[in-house]
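Supplementary Note 3. Input sequence used for the single-chain structure prediction.
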Amino acid sequence: MNFPVITVSIVNHGHDFMLRHLLGQLAKHSTFIAKVIVTHNIPNEDEVIEDNYPFDVAILQNNKPLGFGANHNQAFQYCETQYFCVMNPDINIKSEPFGALLFCFENPKIGIVAPTIITPEGEQEDSARYFPTPLGLIRKLLTDYDGSFPAGHDTTQIFPDWMGGMFLVFPSVIYKELSGFDEGYFLYYEDVDICARCWRSGNKVVLVRNIAVIHDARRTSHTNLKYLKWHMLSALRFFLKHLGRFPKKLI
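The predicted structure, written as discrete structure tokens, is reproduced below.
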């Protein structure tokens, strides 16, 4: 399989340069993409449409900012392909990532697939983790514990509890069955929640170790009290919804 079967959803918060760069990389490296849906979550006159992309580019402009999950769920309404990919605009792609990721879906019990995420300096990010717990959050504050899932150096696939939402691929039928992201979260924990629900549905969450993309993350939100508030509210929602009811993982 080497033909367009993926719709990619990207939410733009004014990162036009990053977005144009990413679209150019997707055009250069992948033939699997049929459509890219760009959602401008804040007012934006630059629609980033060019004639030379080998895929369709659809633009959605929000009247008011929506949360992470609501934006991608909105984009999914325009997905007509077999697979749906959620991708951050600060992702960099240096080679074709989708072939090996889509191959995982030869196993019909796999519901979400992600590549390994690395930093611009070449370090592996902790994008694959164990489910968070209140005790785990306290450990993170007091120790160097970060909840990372073991890398599994003797295998090309690992099955973490959850994976970061900067790059996730779903069969469209699975995304629909899960009703997409829970829009009750505005920001943070949407990815944790959808992975928990995927496991609970009897499907697996897989990270492919030998496929990597670069995440050029800007961490300014870590010092912003508004983001801290969102993080705390999202953690509380997740614990009320899932704590004590984490799904059994059948690998």
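Residues 225-242 form the longest helix (18 residues). The radius of gyration is 17 Å.
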